[in-house]
Amino acid sequence: MIDLHGFGDQLLQGAVVTLELALSSLFVGLILGLLGASAKLSSFKVLRWIAHGYTTIIRGIPELLTVLIIYFGATSVLMAIAGVFGYDEYIEVGAFAAGVTALGLTFGAYATEVFRGALQSIPKGQHEAAIALGMGPIRKFYRIILPQVWRIALPGLGNLFLVLLKDTALVSVVGLDDIMRKANIAVSSTKEAFLFYLVAAFMYLALTIISMVFVSYMEKRASRGLIRG
Amino acid sequence: MDFSVVVEYFPRLLEGAWVSLQLVIVSIVLGGVFALPIALARISPVAWIRAVPFAYIFFFRGTPLLVQIFLVYYGASQFDVVRESFLWPILREPFWCAIIAFTLNTSAYTAEIFRGAIQAIPQGEVEACKVLGMTKAQMYRRILLPRAFGIVLPAYGNEIILMLKGSALASTITILDLTGMARTIIARTYTPMEIFLAAGAIYLLISIVIIAIFRQIELRQNRYLGTLSIKVPDKG
Fold first, then answer.
1. A60:B236 CB<8 A
2. What is the mean pLDDT of residues B106-122?
3. Topology (CATH) of B3-222
4. Which domain holds residue A79?
5. CA distance B190 to B197
6. A71 and A172 Cβ atoms separated by less than 8 Å
7. Any CB–CB contact under 8 A between A79 and chain B?
8. How many domains is chain A built from?
9. What pLDDT score does B220 carry?
10. What is the pTM of this model?
11. Are B236 and A61 a contacting pair at CB < 8 A?
């Protein structure tokens, strides 16, 4: 057995934080992705422009830089907003909140494209049939469009989640106690860098494998009504 | 916000951008060279030859680039054997450690792209080569690889952009690339937003240039097809 010098449970705690961060960012990113895709397909030019600007900028700058910008920027933005309301104490944005914001924004930008493709692949007849049945836009979206979009978008979203899982490591740079930072702490006290980074790598691999199994289960579930030729 | 600080430190940011570009260019070229044999081994009919590149690709695609960089930079120096070997002058330098980590990483992704492209070539063309009596080497050199090169371009362009963005991680091992330079400037001026936004704009600009270059190469490479739209599923 490998000797982890008692840092084993520290690393496991880090894994829990990594998972929490990944799942929270996934949630934020999915909502942003759906909003972004709707905006891109909207008939309002302004909305299309905003969505286009969002995806271009986020996809064009490094994730690490996004994390740093949000971490350092959120404080000054929030303090400026609070200042308007007459509150002038120091506001600190934690690493977790900054991480969820940054990774959620990143996931959302890529998910926008995935959802856009899926939304566009729903035949027009489906919309017309739903309207003919007397459904309003919201009910049509929930009952008819979203379940089909979900099935088409899942493989793409699964890939994005794997990228997201690995990007969580970047948030350790601004001090989140995830796998990576726990490994750093272990390294600085034991000087066994290779061992601990390798263990960290295999923890990420394990999370990746679990996610892949889960995504393929979801894919099967989402297409259960589908007859394959 | 006060953007005069950006004007003042702009030359330093450009210096950093040049380091980033060097990292990307060297690791993309080396990664491409390694990726081809890995991809060919990955589609070998022999099971144990396939298994090695599979494990390699799985490890490098399944773990964060940050871990890989730390493994090379901090991890390698843990061993006395490494510190006493002729490799130490290279492994001591953060720049070369970043190059090693990036190259290992990008060659795993690129190998998958190459494999997809080689397998996307219609079986009939392979059969035609065999009918003409080509050896396996001739078939690859004359038909399969040039064809694969055309198919690979859009996905390869994505990979270069991802590498450009990944190169920002070099700043975590004290390299003064664009992000590293930005962080150094901020430590002195304490204007994080202005400098980080300027750095982001430079990355964005470089990405746009890379995308434009690839569109041109794609147009040239695939001109015999008469259409532009060869769809290769990108890696999301």
1. no
2. 91
3. MetI-like fold (1.10.3720)
4. 9-223
5. 13
6. no
7. no
8. 1
9. 82
10. 0.89
11. no
